[in-house]
Amino acid sequence: MALAIVAAPANADTSGQLDTAKQEAAAAQAELDRVAVSWQAAEARLALAQDAAAAARARIAELEGRLADVQVRLNERAAALYLLLVAELTEQRTVPLHLPLPTEPRARALAERILEQPRATLDEVVATVPAARRTCERLLRDETGLTLAGWQRRARMLRAIELLGRGASVTTASAEVGYATPSAFVVAFRSETGCTPTEFMAGTVAGRTRARRRG
What we know:
- The chain has helices at residues 12-90, 105-116, 122-126, 133-144, 148-165, 170-176, 182-193, 197-214.
- It is an all-alpha fold.
- It has a domain at 68-214: Arc Repressor Mutant, subunit A (Orthogonal Bundle).
């Protein structure tokens, strides 16, 4: 008896699996599209954040520049006030206490540190500016005619005169401007003014008394 070979019908399960795979692929593609959109949005937000950060840095730099300018003006005013106080205290008595301010940035920074920190040593002050001590010495001498030590000593004397004028004792004034002992301070004071602190203040008081009597 002959056997007949009959083709099997398409498997319904296979067709269903194919449809499911297509649906899953479509869903995966849709998910990829959503991820791509989210990624683009994240990149846009990142770009905005970077722009904002750059703008903030620029603003900070601008404010720092303004602050530096203000600090320079304040230090100039402080030096001018020191000199004005000296003139007032001395009643036009001749005292060589002119304190020229340098303009070169490193020398100016050094001078500002000395004015701000009269008790600091020269090594401590020089360490705060981007220049070697020998460079600082040269810059300050070229612009002011004073050595680094001489400029610091004069700045200290101006500060000391201010303190003495406010009623501070010689001991207190000497400590406030960085001298280990009152005697060392008196020697430095005499070298700058030609008299001791006591003699200086006595002359100031006498001058004021004469001025009041004339008035």
